[in-house]
């Protein structure tokens, strides 16, 4: 009789998803106010990454708009080379993202462990990332923070873009002006604040490719002023060993990704077709883009499955130092939204439940210009207009395939109406959270100190992570804090 009263309550897997649906496994990551751990769905036995964000810390760090925006963007996205969201839910303490699990580690981790990579490996990663970037641009989404830290490998070695915390929709009618992203990877037009759009992601991709090849970035400076000057004015130079490490075609591709004029940048073409320019570039010649999209191409590097491809200290910290360890808790009933702070109510109402097995992916973007067209090369600082591409000729009996816009559940996107609180407007110029590459927090008045002193994760094998900054009009975000990069 006594044992019967303590029997665990049955889990309703047909009901709304919640933390009771998952086994909590090892911790694998930690940020300013969020953590990541491996979880397993109790019914399907599928492994995922659980990213959970403490609501109180989120409010304190003025990051509510960014978290809601990331949640909305991830609902819209579904692509082979993106870390896709599968579930989203919340309890009284945390907001939860359940994401594709990537066991291969991030590219920063592998740079630290093994150093510079071969041209074959780098070309493979760039080709996969180009497909993901083109897909995002077709959704009118610009990532704004492409760097090795935000590229995760799966267990086979395929590359995936993650961290959409400062990603935003862009529009031809209004260019972005906020200084958002990681400074060393920012395009010149971001730093000049004269307006920018989708082409900034291709600049960041060029910086990323250079860094993977040579284990250092092409533009460097010990202060933010020096780094800005290097990005805006210094010529692109190559290490002495470059001719032996990279082909002429590879260096040309990187050079054209790093074209300061976005209208001439590889990946952009006025009127559309930028992705076709990438596919026809000599460096990418010979790639079977259809097979690449389907992950049928064997990656040239496979992560070591016998070693942890992440910092193992996260799990130790969770065991020894966490005062309030994560566990499934039922929500309190009868909570009055009117008694909540505006920020808490915003999370409660706009961090909506999502279950990919039940929901159709949709967009929260409200522009009439959404057309589903690829915009790699459709927008720039000149806000070039979109032109439709001529129809593609497909051989008889052939399977029609478009690498730049793979068919996914996102193709059933439906634009929905505003719900009273325009979250996207709050982060359009950088958002409710300004980010740095380090884990700690600094105010904007401290940004003139040397970049190297800001990185709290330095190691003998690692270059200091550059400033990750974001600005917003003072009247919207007074005394905005500069925060550490969030998981």
UniProtKB/TrEMBL annotation:
Ranges of residues in domain AGC-kinase C-terminal: 285-366
Region forming the signal peptide: none
Ranges in a coiled coil: none
Pfam families in alphabetical order: Pkinase (PF00069)
Region (Disordered): 321-346, 367-415, 432-487
GO biological process terms on file: G protein-coupled receptor signaling pathway; regulation of signal transduction
Keywords from the named record: ATP-binding, Kinase, Nucleotide-binding, Serine/threonine-protein kinase, Transferase
Record has Aminoacyl-tRNA synthetase as a keyword: no
Bias-annotated ranges (Polar residues): 396-411
Single annotated GO MF: G protein-coupled receptor kinase activity
Biased composition annotated in UniProt, kind: Low complexity: 367-385
Binding site for ATP: 51
CDD domains reported in the protein's UniProt record: STKc_Yank1
Compositionally biased spans, kind Gly residues: 432-441
Sequence ranges assigned to domain Protein kinase in this UniProt record: 22-284
Sequence similarity: Belongs to the protein kinase superfamily.
Protein's UniProt name: AGC/YANK protein kinase
Native species: Tremella mesenterica
Lineage of the organism: Eukaryota, Fungi, Dikarya, Basidiomycota, Agaricomycotina
């Amino acid at each position: 009789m006594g044992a019967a009263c303590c029997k665990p309550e049955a889990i309703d897997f047909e009901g709304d998803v919640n933390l009771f649906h998952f086994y909590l496994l090892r911790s694998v990551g930690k940020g300013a106010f969020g953590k990541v751990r491996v979880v397993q769905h109790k019914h399907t036995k599928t492994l995922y990454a659980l990213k959970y964000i403490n609501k109180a810390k989120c409010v304190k760090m003025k990051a509510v708009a960014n978290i809601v925006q990331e949640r909305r963007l991830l609902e819209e996205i579904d692509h082979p080379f993106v870390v896709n969201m599968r579930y989203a839910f919340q309890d009284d303490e945390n907001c939860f993202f359940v994401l594709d699990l990537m066991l291969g580690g991030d590219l920063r981790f592998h740079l630290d462990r093994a150093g510079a990579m071969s041209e074959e490996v780098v070309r493979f990663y760039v080709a996969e990332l180009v497909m993901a970037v083109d897909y995002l641009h077709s959704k009118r989404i610009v990532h704004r923070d492409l760097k090795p830290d935000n590229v995760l490998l799966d267990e086979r070695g395929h590359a995936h873009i993650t961290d959409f915390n400062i990603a935003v929709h862009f529009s031809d009618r209004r260019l972005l002006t906020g200084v958002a992203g990681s400074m060393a990877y920012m395009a010149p037009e971001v730093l000049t604040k004269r307006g920018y759009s989708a082409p900034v992601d291709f600049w960041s991709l060029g910086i990323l490719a250079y860094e993977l090849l040579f284990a250092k970035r092409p533009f460097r400076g010990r202060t933010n002023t020096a780094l800005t000057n290097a990005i805006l004015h210094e010529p692109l130079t190559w290490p002495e060993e470059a001719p032996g490490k990279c082909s002429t075609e590879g260096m040309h591709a990187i050079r054209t990704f790093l074209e300061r004029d976005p209208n001439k940048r590889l990946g952009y073409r006025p009127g559309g077709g930028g992705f076709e320019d990438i596919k026809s570039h000599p460096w990418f010649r010979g790639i079977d883009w259809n097979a690449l999209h389907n992950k049928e191409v064997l990656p040239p590097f496979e992560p070591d499955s016998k070693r942890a491809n992440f910092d193992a200290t996260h799990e130790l910290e969770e065991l020894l130092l966490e005062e309030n360890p994560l566990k499934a808790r039922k929500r309190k009933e009868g909570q009055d939204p009117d008694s909540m702070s505006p920020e808490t109510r915003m999370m409660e109402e706009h961090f909506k439940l999502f279950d990919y097995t039940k929901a159709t992916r949709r967009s929260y973007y409200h522009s009439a210009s959404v057309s589903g067209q690829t915009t790699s090369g459709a927008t720039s600082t000149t806000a070039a207009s979109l032109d439709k591409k001529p129809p593609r000729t497909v051989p008889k009996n052939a399977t029609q395939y478009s690498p730049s816009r793979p068919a996914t559940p996102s193709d059933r996107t439906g634009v929905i109406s505003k719900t009273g609180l325009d979250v996207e407007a709050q982060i359009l110029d950088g958002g409710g959270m300004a980010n740095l590459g380090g884990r700690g927090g600094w105010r904007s008045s401290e940004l003139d100190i040397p970049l190297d002193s800001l990185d709290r994760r330095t190691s003998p094998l690692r270059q200091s992570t550059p400033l990750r900054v974001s600005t917003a009009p003072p009247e919207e975000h007074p005394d905005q804090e500069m925060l550490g990069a969030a998981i």
